[in-house]
Amino acid sequence: MKMNRKTWLRHAGAVLALAATASTATTAAFAQSAELRVGLIPSEDAQAMIRASQQVMDQLATRTGMKVRPFVANDYNGVIEALRSNKIDIAFLGPFSYVLANQVAGAEAFAVAVTKKTGKSAYHSMVISRKDKGPASVADLKGRSFAFVDPTSASGHLFPKAGLMAEGFDADKGFSRVIFSGSHDASIMAVANGKVDAAAVADRIFDSAVNKGLVKREDFQIVWRSQPIPESPMTWRKNLDAGTKQKVAAALAEVKDLPWGDQGVLDGFAATDDKAYDVVRQTAKALKLDLGSMK
Questions:
Q1: Are residues 220 and 247 in the same domain?
Q2: Where does the signal peptide begin and end (predicted)?
Q3: Which one of 176, 217, 219, 255 is separated from 83 by 20 to 30 angstroms, measured CA to CA?
Q4: Domain of residue 84, residue span
Q5: What is the pLDDT of residue 86?
Q6: Tell me, what's the pLDDT at 6?
Q7: Are strands 125-130 and 198-202 parallel, antiparallel or unpaired?
Q8: Which parts of the chain have pLDDT scores under 50?
Q9: Residue 269: which of 154, 123, 115 has the closest Cα?
Q10: Rounded to whole angstroms, how far apart are CA atoms 80 and 91?
């Protein structure tokens, strides 16, 4: 088909516009691949989380050759939303917040931290109270004030609630008052300072608070303890490019002998997958939780 000058110019303009768009997209993709944005759940306050993970972030930057930028949201859902909207590339999530992120944001679990202290990829939830005047048994929780961490926290809400209900305690109606503190440290201090009678927290974060001198172990008692919970996973957004995924997974596997938050000294990150968190889904189902309504 022969083109007149006007048609040819229109066609040439369209081609140039397409080329410019492609160039812009390529530049954006390159810029994105040069930076790795890492989301961290707020198990402690934001600055404490960044400090605790800084050495690992530095090693990740060195091993991938990328600029690593950590991000801590105000709550668990803030990290999930950042994944969903492609504002971060990978994230450290709790087991339950991962299951939620997988459903609403397409996040994929790919690694879990293995520490030299335990050599395991699991931890426990426990309900703590003050030894001098707190409830000493599950039955004693009736009519008492209680702190959960976050609605999407595995060890700070999902597992303890299911565990208490399995022992015959109505976690929906049995407490006189329930709060969501926002972090495990905040829940521990709420018990220590008498703001609540008991709280559900991760055992390793309680141990960390003791080791930091924030509280004394002998001042507390354990009211209830869960079965092992699959470790908090490192996840990436589903549409992260394959090259970056490969670099990040390889880099994390080699990160050793560095502190990783409350978990202790790392012995690398082991591979994991979505199936490892089916027990979390089953627990949510037992509580009749609608994951879709929690986003």
A1: no
A2: 1-31
A3: 255
A4: 34-117+230-285
A5: 94
A6: 44
A7: antiparallel
A8: 1-32
A9: 115
A10: 9
